[in-house]
Amino acid sequence: MVARHDQTTDPDLLTALLQARRGTAFFARKLNELSDADLDGPSLLAGWSRRHVVAHVGYNARAIARLIEWAATGVETPMYPSPKARGHEIDFGATLSPIALRNLFDHAAVHLNVEWRDLPADAWRHQVKTAQGRVVPAAETVWMRTREVWIHAVDLDNGATFADIPAPVLARLLADITGAWHTRGTDTGLIIRASGPSGANGDVLTFGDTGNPGAVTVAGDLAAVAAWAAGRSADGATATTGTGQAVGVPAAPSWL
Ligand code: ZN
């Protein structure tokens, strides 16, 4: 019998699935606000039209669904045959008719949701491999997708901003990005400080080269700092030297 609800009962995983589903709904809303002609316009990503973004988000759902099938069956199925194939697929998808492009996004999102819903509780621990070659439990795919749908909804460039992204998603995103910088050592001389969004608790998140008194601190509210760290926008972020002098906000180190 087909399950009508999630097989997992892990509360953290159910919360994570909710964020992914909300992000998918948000992306769908921003996409549906665009006319077919609007799809031809540029996205926030250099060299990509909105068509490329929609195609990428659709194919990303298919790729993540392959990982869930892998977790369910034990039969290894990579996200993409190769980075080159992934790029070709996006370029091809961007040429689809508007209706086909919209169907690609919708159907891929529904299919992924069914794969997640029907994955047996114990299979969420099974190991799969990301496109970057990281071996992760199947549960990690929920975050991988969450990140994609929320950020790329902003990339559609029709009004969404990082302030629309839920604070827990922004906090994890910022931790991911600054963690990647730290691993590569690209955060040398840089401190990152994000304050809680207004209305939420006043927690301050601090990352980077915190032991360096000469470091430049980039600060702002969580949405502004996450948008800066993701390379999308420096609006609302400020930068100061170790002695408290205001300076121009530096470009964020690359992330992916
Ligand atoms: Zn992406």
Describe the structure.
By secondary structure, this protein is of the alpha+beta class. The protein has 2 domains: 11-160, dinb family like domain (Four Helix Bundle (Hemerythrin (Met), subunit A), Up-down Bundle); 167-247, Nonspecific Lipid-transfer Protein, Chain A (2-Layer Sandwich). The chain is built from 7 helices and 7 strands, in the order ααααββααβββαββ. The radius of gyration is 19 Å and the shape is globular. 36% of the residues are buried. The mean pLDDT is 94. It binds zinc ion. Residues 56, 148, 152 line the site of zinc ion.
Number of strands: 7
First-residue to last-residue Cα separation: 41 Å
Mean pLDDT reading = 94
The gross shape turns out to be: globular
Order of helices and strands: HHHHEEHHEEEHEE
CATH superfamily of the largest domain: dinb family like domain
Q: Helical proportion?
A: 40-55%
CATH fold label of the largest domain = Four Helix Bundle (Hemerythrin (Met), subunit A)
CATH-level-2 architecture of the largest domain: Up-down Bundle
Major beta-sheet overview: 5 strands, mixed
Sheet/helix structural class: alpha+beta
Going across the major beta sheet, what is the strand order? 4-3-5-6-7
Count of helical stretches: 7
The CATH C-level name of the largest domain is Mainly Alpha
Bound small-molecule species: zinc ion
Point out poorly predicted stretches.
none
- How large is the share of residues in beta strands? 5-15%
- Cα radius of gyration in angstroms: 19 Å
Assembly of the depicted chains: single chain
User: In total, how many domains does the architecture comprise?
Assistant: 2
